[in-house]
Amino acid sequence: MMLAHTLHDVHSFKRHIHANRLSGIDNEWLTPAQAQEFCPILNVSSSIRYPVLGAALQRRGGVARHDAVAWGYARGASAMGVDIIENCEVTGIRRDASGAVCGVETSRGVIETRRIGVVAAGHTSVVMAMAGLRLPIESFPLQAMVSEPVKPIMPCVVMSNTMHAYLSQSDRGELVIGAGTDAYISYSQTGGLHVAIHTLEAICELFPTVRRLKMLRAWGGIVDVTPDRSPIIGKTPVPGLFVNCGWGTGGFKATPGSGLVFAHTLATGEPHPINAPFTLDRFRSGRLIDEAAAAAVAH
Q: pLDDT, tens digit, for every residue of 205-248?
């Protein structure tokens, strides 16, 4: 459930709802009272800093456990003959006399190959620098935290882009709290304390019943963000080197689609029609893909 706190939110979310319905996706608009009925611990009082003016809801939406999804993909790939090497750090990318890639140097030896696909999220720029490339991306910490476990109180994921916060509950009873990206570029996986405090203040205002819960742990994941907030999927100036990056805070949700078109690009050497516009060259030509408002993510 996505909360609307301003008239701009209301107009934007209703537009999204209508667009989703036209695409055959069930999506609906809730009044503040209906939102509270669906999520009883939500505070819809008009006295809070950002009153809830309504909410967009997709009743069939669910929560996917990130690591379990990664395990599922790994097992499926392994069953199809893909070699997966764990705990293996990439230390360099080899290029031949013509400039094309010819291998990957790792902490466990050299892997010779004529095609390399880099999907390293926040550390994409670090890996690509090994091939002598500088990408137009910035890396930011994205913070999250979990509370002590409690009995079920959250029936869904509630997200507020205005407050840069979301709340859901894990199978173990922990409340999972997410923030927006830090305001500065960094590879620190702790993030800024002020960002966590701002998020917790917003959560406590929206959900007063959780005020006395203790936080168990917090962490920061590194996300990569492009100038136009859209990903880069395709070839690079280095022959045989391909990249899939720039997903910001929304990469997990895009895994199936981006994986399909990236696999096509790697296999054929040319982009799939869907990812053809998401070229690295667009930052030189000026054909940017400005879809920040359509991303529904906190960057």
A: 999 999 999 999 998 889 999 988 899 999 999 999 999 999 98
> Judging by beta carbons within 10 Å of its beta carbon (0-12, 13-18, 19+), is residue 291 exposed, middle or buried?
exposed
The C-alpha atoms of residue 71 and residue 64 are separated, in whole angstroms, by: 12
pTM of the model: 0.85
Q: In terms of C-beta distances under 8 Å and separation of at least 24 residues, what long-range contacts does 277-280 make, across chains too?
A: 278/230, 278/231, 278/232, 278/233, 278/234, 279/232, 279/234, 279/235, 280/135, 280/136, 280/232, 280/234, 280/235, 280/236, 280/237, 280/243
Q: For the chain, what percentages of helix, strand and coil (3-state, to nearest 5) are there?
A: 30, 25, 45
Q: What does the alpha-carbon distance between residue 205 and residue 199 come to, in Å, rounded to a whole number?
A: 10
Instruction: Confirm if 35 and 54 have CB atoms less than 8 A apart.
Output: yes
Alpha helices in 81-171 (DSSP H): 124-129
Evaluate whether 80 touches 244 at the Cβ level (below 8 Å): no
Indicate the SS3 state at residue 271.
coil
Predicted confidence (pLDDT) per residue in 169-188, tens digit: 998 999 999 988 888 898 98
Tokens of 43: 């505070």
**Distance in angstroms (rounded) separating the CA atoms of residues 274 and 30:** 33
